[in-house]
# Entry
Amino acid sequence: MLYSKLFPKPQKQGKEYDSVNATYLQNGGFIHQTMAGVYSYLPLGMRVLTKIEQIVRTEMDKIGQEVLMPSIVPTKLWEDTKRLEVVDVLFKVTGANKVSRERNDAEYILNPTHEEVVTPLAKLFTSSYKELPFAVYQIQTKFRNEPRAKSGILRGREFRMKDLYSFHASEEDLLDYYDKVAKPAYVEVFKKLGLGDSTVIALASGGDFTEKYSHEFQTLCESGEDTLYYDKKEKTYYNKEVVKDPDSDKYEIVKGAEVGNIFPLNTKFSVALDFTYTDENGERKPIYMGCYGIGTSRVMGVLVEMFHDEHGIIWPMQVAPYHVHLVALDMTDAKIKEKAFTLYHQLQKEGIEVLFDEREDVRPGAKFADADLIGIPVRLVISKRTEDKIEWKKRDEKESEVLTSDEVLARIHMLLKTG
# Structure
């Protein structure tokens, strides 16, 4: 990608917002705020979000099948589960049209979650124990009428989420699958996203789904909105809401940003919607269910909160918008220009994603500042000073080196293998 064609260009002297991710993602040209809690994902942001979701998809394909369910549904689905007036973040919309003579005045729900959709859908195609267990998932846009949307894409009114739902003949089978989702599936997801070392499993309320705990995946982060209590003796994290004696000295208090959660739904939705199966003895029994979420757009914000410095973002290689940021100086020199474009095409030929700053009328300092703000893992510089070699600098390191093109390519391929 040629930098001169990039839409939009970063704004080094941009605004400062209420969080690190909001500031760097907007000034860096990754997202744009349409209104509070609602963002457009620009080309750089889409590249990051797509990579995050592909990592999630790869692991989910090992334990479920992908589907895509509607965002907008009739209110009856929520009335059937008696959650229409219980869930306080629902967006309700009507189809009234003052322009057209044909008006549809029905009320609809913009889904914040999809139990009301997936349960009757699964019911249509499941009747026997022989069809159990199974699981389906989707990666889709969700809507929550948050009273105070804040912290950039950490708490939005419109956001991306992976939600998986599993269906079982017994509680025992549900809990066995539930454990497999937690470990290894979710653990592997966050490891591959670059958050494995800092993400923990915290016990949380089961809500009205179960008397047992649900489990949250929390990335330990000073800017996180959740308060976690770490029992040093049991080596267990608890969400603040389930700690009975928060003043006890047994706990270490830390901050976390929730990136995922899993719930054993048991028979709450199957009973409400009369979703049963016939067992091997011919008896009708309720289906046991579980749900498992990962906030993919939220993960993007958490990555920025975790990996940045005073100059900008520091993306992990596996989710970075590009692998390499190639900066060419002295582009009015014909030899430098030819060398830079030759390297650019060579990188592309070898499958290395590269953003090439080929602008001739921009000072070196401005080019380097843009590179730091965007946060691509490797910066390569070609100039008169480097002569027939290339300056190599990793975004998370201060020192640079001068290498041959063969050495540069070998290092990049090694980084792509190891992350």
Observations:
- The chain has a mean pLDDT of 95.
- The domain at 322-418 is CATH 3.40.50.800 (Rossmann fold).
